[in-house]
Each structure stands twice: as C-alpha cells, then as structure tokens.
C-alpha cells in the first residue's frame, strides 16, 4: 500500500511540475516582450532556452538519480525549484530594465532568457529521470524483473509529465494570464512548487523519518529563504512610476496609463508594453500625435463618407474624432485587447453611442469573415517597431482591405520606418507591396521626407482614379493644417528604384529581421 501511495504521489508530482514548466515558458515570453518586442526572436529565444535547460536537466538528472535514488532528493529538487521561480520574479523586475537598455531586439531575448529562465528550467528538468528511477510498477504474477519494466515505467512518467505540460499551457493561456497579473502567477507558481516539495517530506512515512533525522536548523532553512525572498519582494518591490494612474497585464500586452506632459500641455498617455500607444490632452480637445490627424484625408475623396472601419482602437482617439465630426458616421472598430474600450471610456473621455460597434477581434480576421464595405478603412496597429504584426504588412492583407472598400473608398494606414540607408528596407518593401495593390496611392512622411530618423509614414490608397492636385486651392488654402501641408510631406515614390526590395506576402515577410536593421 505504501508503494502505491508513493507511486501515486510521484506521478501527481510529475504532472504538477510538467504544468509548471509550461506556465513558466509561456510567461517568459510575456515577461520579455515589453523590453524586446513580441517577435520571432523572443519566441525562439525562450523556447530554445527552455529546451536546452530541460535537455541538460534530463542528462544530469539521470546521472544524479543513479547516485542518489531517493524520494527525499526528488522532493527536495521540487522545493528548490520553487525558490528559484520566486527568485526569478525578483530578477525580472530588476534586471530586465537594464538588459532592455543594453541589448538589441536580437541579442536581448536570448541573453535575458539564459540569465533569468535557464536555471529554474534546468532544475525542473532534473525531475523526470528521477521519477523514472523511483517509479516502481507492481509485478503481480509477472516474472519480469524491474529492469524489464523500464519501458512501461518511463512511458508512464513521460505521459503524466507531458499531460501536465498540456494542462499548464491551457491553464496559462485561457485562465491565469487573462485573470491574474504575471507577477502574481510567477510567485504563486514558485510558492506552489515549494510547498509541494515540502509536502513530499511529510506525506510519506519514510520521508518523515529521513526528514526527522536532519537538524531542525537545516530543515527550516528552505522555509526561511522563501520567507526572506517573499518579504523582500513585498517591501522592496519597485514602486509605481510617478503619474501612473492604471496598470495591468492585458491579454496581449502590459497596459499602463500615465499622466504627464506633451508639448507643455498636461497629457494622459496609454502605454502598451513599453511603447506609447495613444494620448489625450487633458485641457483641450485635439489629437495629440500628428500621425493620427491624417485620418482627415478621406475628406479629399469622399467628404460625405458614413461608414468607417478602424483596425486598432488603442485609446479610441480616431473613432472618437470620426464620430464627433459627423452625426451620420458609423464606425466599426476591431481591437484585439479586450480591456481598451472600457479604459478609453474611463480615462480618455470616450463616450460612444450606438453608432460605434466594437469587436474584440483581430482586424484582418474580421475583414475576412465579413463582407461589409466601407468608405474609410484605417489601419493603426503599429504601436511600436518592437511589435509589428506581420499579417498587417502583406499583399494579402492589402488586397483584402481593398476588397472591403466602396468604389471611392480610401485606405489610410500608419506605418513606421526610416526612408534612408540600409534601415529603409522595411518601409520600402511595404511601400512596394502597397503600390502593387493600390496603384493610385500616396505616401506621407509625418516628420519630413528628408528626415533620416525613424518616423511615422502614412499610406493612402484610393479605390478610384481620383488624384491629389497638390497645387489646387482645395489643398493649398485648406483650413486643415494636415491637408494644406501635404505637398511638403509627400514622398516622391516615382523617383525610387524599388527593384532592390522584395514584396511582402503571407509566405515571405521577415518583419523581425527587417526591423532589426532599423533598431540595431
């Protein structure tokens, strides 16, 4: 009976630690993304680090289990892994801001992953070989020796370990991250592992005897270490940045709302991860960022437009402006982060009526599943060069967008990049791709076409043959400063040789690599 109890508790332990490994791996991507972007470099670095740590853990765990095949050692490893996971949270809070400033979006994720996540994953990797070594299947009437059952024993261990990993993956993605903050999940995971390991000492009679033979000061040492780490985290946790009025881990990014100043005026900012996403003046009703003001370009082609679709709500600055300037305007918004609409109402003075329809959905997916056509389609999903959604840069996306425009509809997109040098490859590839879909198109540098710095680039695609006459009175004498300044912002793409740039498609769009040329 004792043997069965041991085996059951052992396999449950394997399940629990398998779940912990995948929870940590998924959280690791969310932890690193604010500093280096939600890119393929981050994903590859985290997965590569965890797999390397686990593989080495399996190797050394096998050798270690041959020397010390004891349940006490197995549960002590679980206890230590809990301490390391809690300490990992301490490292992320104090080390990542430093690494974010020191390393590029290519090197930063792998260095950070190795420094922060390698050791906890390595220690958890020690457990599977131990479990195989310790797991004993009752022989019954079989004449098989213990060695003959290694296959079934190891298969059962890895079955429960993998099942735990599946459970951890689903639990993290569908329950923990949407409901709790990342910091709380990490600390809870660490404390759970610690207590589970400690429970192994007291649950099994043989471990009680082994444990009671230890000096009490050594027996209590791990508990004292855990208490010290938790108290340190509690009392010395980095305080809120000045001006922060809201912060929370969203489903996709860290969300923070901060009061500060912009151009000498009191301003409220929305941060997604570590990048400015949107802003609102607190004492005047006008758009803060210049690139957002280009939504008015639709008036040159269809001043009586009534149907608009905005991809990327943010603080809902553009939907708010569209609704305020026309009582006939109907605005659909696709915003994948579910909390942003409620936050825009609470903190950014957005009070929409039934003319606004909000969809918590990926914008491209929404377009592909709905046949509705619009007079205006605005794409504003680039809140940071660190996190450019690849599927909003390709020829397929632009074709889909064009198919959802009325005959005289316009596409207005906010993109970013550098117009000069090797770092111009990204924006030039995007312009080339866009021109293939929208032959009648214009591109405006929000700062200046002569600027050699990274800046917002506005893409304007017209679903008709109507052209812009930059010398017409409609442009030159327009009261809107964005429109009367278009000639100075116009990028003369006819003078650019695009043969050296590649078209971006769903099959080929190495966005992170091209962004790396800009940032590195």
From TrEMBL:
<feature type="transmembrane region" description="Helical">
    <location>
        <begin position="157"/>
        <end position="179"/>
    </location>
</feature>
<keyword id="KW-0472">Membrane</keyword>
<feature type="domain" description="PABS">
    <location>
        <begin position="222"/>
        <end position="465"/>
    </location>
</feature>
<feature type="transmembrane region" description="Helical">
    <location>
        <begin position="7"/>
        <end position="28"/>
    </location>
</feature>
<feature type="transmembrane region" description="Helical">
    <location>
        <begin position="40"/>
        <end position="60"/>
    </location>
</feature>
<keyword id="KW-0812">Transmembrane</keyword>
<keyword id="KW-0620">Polyamine biosynthesis</keyword>
<feature type="transmembrane region" description="Helical">
    <location>
        <begin position="72"/>
        <end position="98"/>
    </location>
</feature>
<feature type="transmembrane region" description="Helical">
    <location>
        <begin position="216"/>
        <end position="237"/>
    </location>
</feature>
<dbReference type="InterPro" id="IPR029063">
    <property type="entry name" value="SAM-dependent_MTases_sf"/>
</dbReference>
<protein>
    <recommendedName>
        <fullName>PABS domain-containing protein</fullName>
    </recommendedName>
</protein>
<keyword id="KW-1133">Transmembrane helix</keyword>
<feature type="transmembrane region" description="Helical">
    <location>
        <begin position="110"/>
        <end position="132"/>
    </location>
</feature>
<dbReference type="Pfam" id="PF01564">
    <property type="entry name" value="Spermine_synth"/>
</dbReference>
<keyword id="KW-0808">Transferase</keyword>
<dbReference type="GO" id="GO:0010487">
    <property type="term" value="F:thermospermine synthase activity"/>
</dbReference>
<feature type="transmembrane region" description="Helical">
    <location>
        <begin position="185"/>
        <end position="204"/>
    </location>
</feature>
<feature type="active site" description="Proton acceptor">
    <location>
        <position position="380"/>
    </location>
</feature>
<comment type="similarity">
    <text>Belongs to the spermidine/spermine synthase family.</text>
</comment>
<dbReference type="GO" id="GO:0006596">
    <property type="term" value="P:polyamine biosynthetic process"/>
</dbReference>
<dbReference type="InterPro" id="IPR030374">
    <property type="entry name" value="PABS"/>
</dbReference>
